[in-house]
Amino acid sequence: MRLFALTALTMVAFASNSILNRWGLLDGETGPAAFQALRVVAGALCLGALLYFRGNMPRLLTRRRVVGTGSLMAYMLGFSFAYVALDAGVGALILFGGVQVTMFAGALVAGNRPPVLRWVGAAVAFGGLVWLLWPGAIGAPPFGASLMMGVAAVAWGVYSLAGRGATDPMAETGANFICSIPFALLAWIVVQDGMSASGAVLAIICGALTSGLGYALWYSVLPKLDAAVAALTQLTVPVIAVVGGVLVLGEVASGRLILASAVVLGGVALGVLGGQRRSGSKAS
Q1: How far is CA 141 from the centre of its chain?
Q2: DSSP at 207
Q3: pLDDT tens digits for range 113-152
Q4: How would you classify residue 114: left for phi > 0, otherwise alpha for psi between -120 and 50, otherwise beta?
Q5: For 252, which DSSP code?
Q6: pTM summary value
Q7: Coil, strand or helix: which one is 172?
Q8: Computed from CA positions of residues 17, 172, 153, 270, in that sequence, does the dihedral angle turn out positive or negative?
Q9: How far apart are CA 177 and CA 68, in angstroms?
Q10: In Å, how far from its chain's centre is CA 275?
Q11: Residues 6+ apart with CB under 8 A from 52
């Protein structure tokens, strides 16, 4: 029960990133560059403090940091700018589906041969995203904002693939956040958008709690979860974001979004379970 509760809390934290970012930009006074900058700084301070008290501060100037910091910043910027126009649930679905498709493509580039069901699952998930985002269709989200979230999804997929070999994922994430601070602040200086008091509070919560502590909590429970279970639990993130967007932000869950969510998440689940079954049969 403790593991279940911690895992559920982590998924709520991940979904809250979408809700908080969208909420922070709704007042019209807080801009996306300002929000992401404060989110990065708050996340870096939180993770840095955790690593300091844990007694294993990571090295900051390494080759791994180029990919890690670059992809983290691309994710942060794309994510924040997308939520100028996207609802929380729509953004979370595009992000989640895009990450899964990116990681599938990365596996192919690396020379892996996924089982047939994983191919089918990836195709279904990608098809669901295409249908949701098809330009000009009734109920389709804004193309520009969707494109920005697509950039964020690819960036987070690359970030995840690059971090697979990390011996201490939390330390790597903390180091990447710390190294991202000057770039996040530079983006804010270039764009020169504003920030309200409420937007600042939401950005700090998003950075320190739902990002910093959320990632730390995820890395603490991840070793205790089966790989398929860990992947499947993340299917709940877009659903939580949709529900949270409706309850907290007054968003409307359209029929198109509900159907697209079912297609995308169903495709991901098929791919995960299909791949796990194939692995299990080989092991036996």
Answers
A1: 19
A2: I
A3: 777 887 888 788 888 888 877 766 667 788 899 999 999 9
A4: beta
A5: -
A6: 0.85
A7: helix
A8: negative
A9: 9
A10: 22
A11: none
